[in-house]
Amino acid sequence: MEHIVIIGNGIAGVTLARHIRKKSDSKITIVSSENEFFFSRTALMYVFMGHMKFEHMQPYENDFWKKNKIDLVQGLVTAVIPTSKEIILSNNEKIAYDKLVLATGSKPNKYGWPGQDLEGVTGLYHKQDLEALENWAPKTKRAVIVGGGLIGIELAEMLRSRNIPVTFLVREQSFWSGVLPFGESQMINRHIQEHHIDLRLDTNLVEILSDEKGHARAVVTDKGETIECEIVGLTAGVSPNIDFLKDSGIELGKGIKVNRYLETNIKDIYAIGDCAEQHEAIDLRRPIEAVWYTGRMMGEVLAQTLTGMPTAYKPGHWFNSAKFLDIEYQTYGWVWATAKADEEQFYWEHKSGKKAIRISFDKKDRTFLGINTFGIRMRHEFFDTVLTKKEKVDYVIHHLAEANFDPELYTSHNQEIQKQFISQFVGVKTT
Amino acid sequence: MSKSVKNISIASHENMQMDGIQKLGITLGLLGLFIMTLALLNVSFPNKGIWLAGSIVSIFTGIVVYANRTYLNQPEGIKNNGVWHKDFTNKGTWAWMTGIILTSFYIVLYWFPQYLGLNGDGGKSTGIVGFFDPLSYILNGKAASQWFVYGTLYTIAILGLGYKFILKYRHNKYQLVRTLSVMFFQLGFAFLIPEILEKLNPEKAYFAKDLKNMWPLNYYFFNEWHLKNMFEGGNLGMFMLFFGIAMIFIISPILTYFYGKRWYCSWVCGCGGLAETAGDSFRHLSNKTETAWKIERWMIHSVLVFSFVMTIAVIFTFLSNNPEISFITREQFIWGIVAFLIVFTGTLYIFKRKELDTDAVYTMLSLVAIIIISLFINYFSGNQNILFIDSNSLREWYGFAIGAAFSGVVGVGFYPIMGNRVWCRFGCPMAAILGLQQRLFSKFRITTNGGQCISCGNCSTYCEMGIDVRSYAQKGENIVRSSCVGCGICAAVCPRGVLKLENDTPAGRINSNEILLGNDVDLMDLINQK
């Protein structure tokens, strides 16, 4: 019987295993050093905040794996030996494979800051990071977070939930401004401050200072300021977790190089999820996409290939979501932080300052390109269809009610949005 | 089993500290309860009315002060910080103490009301029952009974903690309107209107005047004494009888078709009202395992069969004993019931065979069991003896085991330990019937939003009915479960806007996707069409 070994039990590896099992009886082994059972990494914050217990993050009951004959091995893989088709664990145990799938995810970026490996310094990615935070939190009088993205704001929310004062260092002029256009980014800045987070824009970390026991005691910023703190959160993005593959002969770039079939340069070895790097980016996507949804989709696709139906990875329209403290964010299609030459953007913000939408469309032919929505839920299916059919922006504005996914009885802002859109962009042509 | 992250430090969860104003609120609330406790211990207050009013005002003021301080000085949003860290909401000592006090209260209320001060011989009551006399005289013109005390406290709980719930979810209009609805129905329909009707008809024997409390939740509706009292209750009695029957056969099926069972369970019902308001702090304690789901199916359907058989038996006995005030003979009655159930079950089976899930199959089998038992009743029963059991004792056992022990003692008493919907989930026969309609014959569903689910588990954790919502959401599958009461909290706590309660056309209501939206279109077509 064919033996498929998957390294990593995150969303990519587990989705793959489940889908293989639906179609085949192959022996499946998942190897992970982080935790025995699959858990939803995206929910780590809710455990720290006391919304959930750790077991609530595990989407499948513990006997699910045995029932579906998916073997779980807890161990750290130290090497892959393609010539003998086996992997080696840190306890020197060897596991032979017929097909090997690398789904090892990411690790937090560290840019060589002095003091980055001190006690009290952590990213927010692994279960172990959560345990470390739990240990340090009781003695923490202030935390400093470095890196203004999705993980940074989650970590800030977590620490604030325990009334720990937080200083948030953001390199850019405004929160996540590489992705969010000015209006939305400013809105989130204000919301961060509303939650009593000390937001420092345009500020970089220079150094983390140690106390006599090797624990972080303060950070120094490029503004020359020293901020006393017991926890330093490093959340300046992530990069593929591939160090153990250096000598394996597998072609590596920033990540594990794969083609559209998610195959590496070595036969019978594949890579999916955060750690995979496309030789050439797909559409407007990046070659490496460290996103939950991407990991899942690659798992769904590769399962087809491994069960006898070779299938290229051809993701559909881009979508993503996040939650910034109390403000939910969804995006469908592409909206660029700075409008591209052929792109026109329409921005509406509610007077509460907690809801906004931005719609991007083609300047010339008014084709809808994408939407950012804040505090208003929208239907994935609606926008997916609109993007496929290349509908005009006017169609979307006209059908906002259909697109809306807010709970029942919520106040609709559609008329207000439509009115503003018409006053700004119609006159030229209406629906 | 992986170990959950434990924090042994007592200083770490700083958010758990209450500030002075929150403590003041708690103190005021407890002070009100303390005055009532003194009354229970037979401390005799001069000017009982003023002390009673004072204690009620004190409870309300305490809740308002506490809730305002807790929720209004922070931005609107989900407020679940520390839920699993706090002793009270994570089955700690305070939770057990509260559970024990509630349970004891119910035991005394149902079986030893004399300890509450009730004077069973028609004399003047003392204790907490006597303490409530002034309010009772104002509302219904009679001295208070233990049920009046219970009804008043119940209403206070729903109104006070409903206010707290509204502040907690003030960003969510669905929750706001829904909570106002349960508060309104409790105060008006369950409490004020029946009491005032009682005052206007002082000479009539008791029958239920709560329009919304329908059979089989109101299990004594068809009991002999109750039917008689309604028959002899003049226009009001006849109205209650006909409205009660119309609720069962006409109003409730129509509303359930359009809105799902939520129109009742989380918008109108008193048990649901208490669970949603007073029980909100414990909703996450419901058990989400498949084992619990199995137990749920067995239990709720056993109660369903029990309640039907008990009711059929008492009506049968009633018809045997009172041919003069009956429209129909007992034979006609049994055959009517059997015919109705066969048509009902048969139609559902013929048209909905493909949409049956395990819950629905169990409900259908329960109905078949009821049909068979009914026929047995007809052929093997005398006037009193139903299948060799006395119908009165059947009725009493139901009242004891289900009406009192299950719905009261376990249902509410165990809130802090097993969650706030134990009764609704494992015991309520009404919920079982509405659940069948919801599953097979309703426009209601919870829609999932394409591929946006991140499997975080907030929805499942906060589902008071123990539904593993995530297991559906992460497959992009609509949630169409018999047990869902439509409280809407899963949609509220979802951080990615994945869930939405909707009433829409029945087409495509029950769906299932292998490959989620967002992936390769051709692949989705290929795999999902299979």
UniProtKB/TrEMBL annotation, chain A:
Protein name: Pyridine nucleotide-disulphide oxidoreductase
A Pfam family annotated for this UniProt entry: Pyr_redox_2
Superkingdom of the organism of origin: Bacteria
Keyword Flavoprotein: yes
Family: Belongs to the FAD-dependent oxidoreductase family.
Keywords recorded for this protein, A-Z: FAD, Flavoprotein
GO molecular function: oxidoreductase activity
Chain ranges of the FAD/NAD(P)-binding domain: 3-279
Cofactor field: FAD
InterPro entries membership: FAD-bd_OxRdtase (IPR050260), FAD/NAD-bd_sf (IPR036188), FAD/NAD-binding_dom (IPR023753)
The UniProt record lists the keyword Transit peptide: no
From TrEMBL, chain B:
Transmembrane segments: 21-43, 49-72, 93-112, 147-167, 179-197, 236-258, 298-320, 332-351, 360-377, 397-417
The keyword Cell membrane is annotated on this UniProt entry: no
Any single Pfam family the record assigns to this protein: Fer4_5
Keyword 4Fe-4S attributed: yes
4Fe-4S ferredoxin-type domain: residues covered: 444-472, 475-504
Recorded GO CC terms: plasma membrane
GO molecular function: 4 iron, 4 sulfur cluster binding; metal ion binding
Keyword annotations from UniProtKB, A to Z: 4Fe-4S, Electron transport, Iron, Iron-sulfur, Membrane, Metal-binding, Transmembrane, Transmembrane helix, Transport
Protein name, UniProt field: 4Fe-4S binding domain-containing protein
Phylogenetic lineage: Bacteria, Pseudomonadati, Bacteroidota, Flavobacteriia, Flavobacteriales
